[in-house]
Amino acid sequence: MKIRTITTGVSLQSPNDEVKIIQTAEFNQKAKGVFEKAGYEVQTTRIATNSWEEYMVGLSNLEIVSAVQKIEKLCQSLGVSFFNLGYAKTPDKIKLIPEFNKVTSQISCSAKIGDKEKGINFENAKIAAQVIKRIAEETENGYGNFRFCASANCKPGIPFFPTGFHEGESAFGIGLECGDLAMKAFSKSGNLIEAEQNLKQIFEEETKKVADVAEQISRDFNIKYNGIDVSLNPGLEESESVAFAYEKLGFGKFGNQGTLTISALITRVLKGLSVKTCGYSGLMLPVTEDRGLATRVNEGTYGVTNLLLYSAVCGCGLDVVPIPGDTSVEKIEAALLDMATLAIKLDKPLSARLLVVPGKKAGEMTDFKSPYLVDCKILKIE
Fold first, then answer.
1. What is the pLDDT of residues 305-352, one digit of tens each?
2. Phi/psi at 288 (nearest 5 deg)?
3. Mean of the per-residue pLDDT values of the chain
4. Taking the CB of residue 129, how many other CB atoms lie within 10 A of it?
5. CA dihedral sign of residues 56, 59, 61, 64
6. Which fold has domain 1-115+147-317?
7. Which of 160, 176, 174 minimizes the C-alpha distance to 48?
8. pLDDT number for residue 181
């Protein structure tokens, strides 16, 4: 298990509020050092803010783009590789996202398309679909969509990007890379009952150790601690694959019958842990970030509809799902609406990060050349 991210949230009043960003970056580095001293590999540290609509109010579109570029330059000078502007919630601001996405490389953000209180915002969903399509056309290999998603019913404090945003006093949370824990638990399980018991035991033991370090950091630096996003989150190696972990339980390949049941089993464990949790704290099935998921999608054992089904029992939605470059805006919109419908009906946080691949069709291989992604066959949205 690794620390995928230490994400600290800060509320900005202005894009020129550089002191807060500098202080947050300094805290992240200190927290990283504490975790490393405790024996953990920390892959990234990140900063998330309140909705950028709040602290860029009154600025023209050109001024907003310029302000975002300025923030990225500051982050680069501080060694901050991941910075999230929070979400946009009004149509005009959602439409602006491609403008700063194409001139930055480290800035993430999201579009809010609904929540439990107000239901689905259909106009925002339509515009978000247009944004996904436009980003794909205006960034190399469509890779700009790695830093954008549409979200529904998501609360502040999610450590993972691009969904994460912040509200209120500064606070930090921990995101894990922990697919290897499921592999260990399921490899020694003879049936589903044992699998659930083993998974619970190993997660309780390992997350308690992380929580102890995080709580000490909170006391030492006098900063609020949000908790751990205990989501079952894979790594790129076979031994860290969530999909291959499923297959240790004897129900065939990931995507076969039984996959939904195992997904629900994992959910019960993660929702029942005794440590303080935040964010999704569910099952992550990022297609191009898990070697097993990529392998099985190449074999056709599951598709977009399956991923939405698994999200019904627990998940973060549709994450890093590659789709054809000629996918219509209407089909992208429909996928976003299905995701939002699940999120609101089941009162859970979900998002959709769709990687539209220009010039490629369903069944062809991606070629992202990214250290963060595994190439696989492109999925069709029906």
1. 999 999 999 888 999 999 999 999 999 999 999 999 999 999 999 999
2. -95, 10
3. 97
4. 26
5. negative
6. Anaerobic Ribonucleotide-triphosphate Reductase Large Chain (3.20.70)
7. 160
8. 97
Give how far Cα 142 sits from Cα of 63, 240, 291, Å.
Answer: 25, 27, 21
Say how far apart CA 311 and CA 307 lie, in whole Å.
6
3-state SS string for the chain = CEEEEEEEEECCCCCCCHHHHHHHHHHHHHHHHHHHHCCCCEEEEEEEECCHHHHCCCCCHHHHHHHHHHHHHHHHHHCCCEEEEEEECCHHHHHHHHHHHCCCCCEEEEEECEECCCEECHHHHHHHHHHHHHHHHHCHHHHHHHHEEEEECCCCCCCCCCCCCCCCCCEEEEEEECHHHHHHHHHCCCCHHHHHHHHHHHHHHHHHHHHHHHHHHHHHHCCEEEEEECCECCCCCHHHCHHHHHHHHCCCCCCCCCHHHHHHHHHHHHHCCCCCECCCCCECCCHHHCHHHHHHHHHCCCCHHHHHHHHHHCCCEEEEEEEECCCCHHHHHHHHHHHHHHHHHHCCCEEEEEEEECCCCCCCECCCCCCCCCCCECCCCC
Show the low-confidence residues of the chain (pLDDT under 50). Answer: none
Domain boundaries, the chain: 1-115+147-317
Q: How many CB atoms lie within 10 A of CB 34?
A: 17
**What's the token pair of residue 313?**
């029992």
